[in-house]
Amino acid sequence: MMTPWLAQRAVDRKDAPALSVGDRTYTYAELAAEVQRRAAGLAAMGIERGATVGLRAQNSLDWVLGAHAVFWRGATLVPLHPRATDAELDFQLSQLDFDLLLVDPNDAAPDTTVRTVPLDELRGPEDTVCRAARVAMDDVMTVLFTSGTTGKPKAVPLTVQNHLSSASASALRLGLCENDNWLCCLPLCHTGGLAIVLRSAIYGTSFELLDGFSTDDVLAVLAERPVTLASFVPTMVYRLLEACEGAVESKLRAVLVGGGPIEARLLGEARRRGIPALPTYGMTEASSQLATLSPHADGHLDTAGTALEGVELRIEREDGTLCDADEAGAIWARGPMIMDGYLNRPDENTARFRDGWFRTGDIGRIDRNGFLRIEHRLTDLIVTGGENVDPGEVEAVLRAASGVRDVAVVGLDDPEWGEVVAAAVVPSEPVDEPAAFFEELGEHCKSELAGFKTPQRWVICSELPQTHSGKIHREQTRQLLRDAPVE
């Protein structure tokens, strides 16, 4: 048994910076004092070890304090996205027995039978002392929902051990410095953002919290604050490079880039301009990272790096046999940071777990030196006229075409072909003649790809549909293309 990590750091790192929000920096002692005030409020409501507390709010200081207060009490935190629809929220609330729901005081109270309390009402008197709970390594610390790119979100229970193993493996890959300061502009309700909060408390290092991503805010923080680490999704990298003509001013030593495909040439451009980008592969079910390119690796920007310490990766054919080096197949993973199984999904757990191995749902290949290349999600594979089409391959070709800023490729049901390849394109400049633009893109694809891989349906959009965590929302992209007039 142990006390929560923040309680430990309030003793051994009490005067070290823990969190900066705007112009205010909290030491670990100050952060723990604020958390105890809120933990006392939770205690008065009967929240203790084993309770389940939902948290639905925007990124904010109150979010961090509320989350740590839940951990301080030894309860399970269930982060919920503040932009979730009523239907999405109803579904998520139906998956667990909630004891309490903490909400943003600026938002309308959700229509639910769960006891609901605004975050700002947790704050008790100053100098409140609330004894930290004792927790076990196998206690469920968080339940996170997958982003739902291809269906209903799944509830992922993660233990204290899962989060600790993830943070330890990440530190071994990236290195750990006493003055590390992580920029957090990802949603705290998803694993990329939450991992920064937890890692910082485990390491005794600090992080800078933003209420979201904007190029101006991020560039300003990187220039003005001692930020050494950051986590971005590919779209953020695209936007930062677009917004900054020259080099990005910062003290960064490493930037994790994951959550979707990104071309090696763009990662190279980011590095040349002051963003030391490291491609990474991870998922909610693994508490974050599974593979990451080493900061010391020479090249290999077209990969996701190698497996982290304690992680085993294998590539399997459909018949369950192991693939050869550089042969594409299903990615399976094993390690102490991976969950034991989804909540309320017995059939899926049976299909995706075998002898301690977890089928990630992605297709990839591992070369002879252990570098992992992600091909696509298994469910994203397009089968047209009996031919398999990797959407990532088509997207890479289209991104290299003139006039294309971003693109998403999906399959649309078709009575003749089974599926047809379709593309949603974000142009870099306004397009006056869409039909001519699509014809040019089609000819570009045919010059690089087999004819059956060339998109047959197209749509122009100002931004690609995204999940709350910033990934491409495949189902919404399909609907966008279904609704588009045929060009």
UniProtKB/TrEMBL annotation:
Q: What class of enzyme is it?
A: ligase
Q: What is this protein called?
A: 2-succinylbenzoate--CoA ligase
Q: In which pathway does it act?
A: Quinol/quinone metabolism; 1,4-dihydroxy-2-naphthoate biosynthesis; 1,4-dihydroxy-2-naphthoate from chorismate: step 5/7; Quinol/quinone metabolism; menaquinone biosynthesis
- State its Enzyme Commission number(s): 6.2.1.26
Name all AMP-dependent synthetase/ligase domain ranges: 8-343
What keywords are assigned to this protein? Answer: ATP-binding, Ligase, Menaquinone biosynthesis, Nucleotide-binding
What family does this chain come from, according to its entry? Belongs to the ATP-dependent AMP-binding enzyme family. MenE subfamily.
Enumerate the InterPro entries for this protein.
AMP-bd_C, AMP-bd_C_sf, AMP-binding_CS, AMP-dep_synth/lig_dom, ANL_N_sf, MenE
Gene Ontology biological process terms in this record: fatty acid metabolic process; menaquinone biosynthetic process
Q: What does this protein do?
A: Converts 2-succinylbenzoate (OSB) to 2-succinylbenzoyl-CoA (OSB-CoA).
- Give residue ranges for domain AMP-binding enzyme C-terminal: 393-471
Q: What is the lineage of its organism?
A: Bacteria, Deltaproteobacteria, Bradymonadales, Bradymonadaceae, Persicimonas
- List the PROSITE patterns hit by this protein, alphabetically: AMP_BINDING
This protein's superkingdom? Bacteria
Q: Catalytic activity, per the record?
A: 2-succinylbenzoate + ATP + CoA = 2-succinylbenzoyl-CoA + AMP + diphosphate
Tell me the gene name.
menE
The molecular function terms in GO held by this entry are: ATP binding; medium-chain fatty acid-CoA ligase activity; o-succinylbenzoate-CoA ligase activity
- Any Pfam family from its record, for instance, is AMP-binding_C
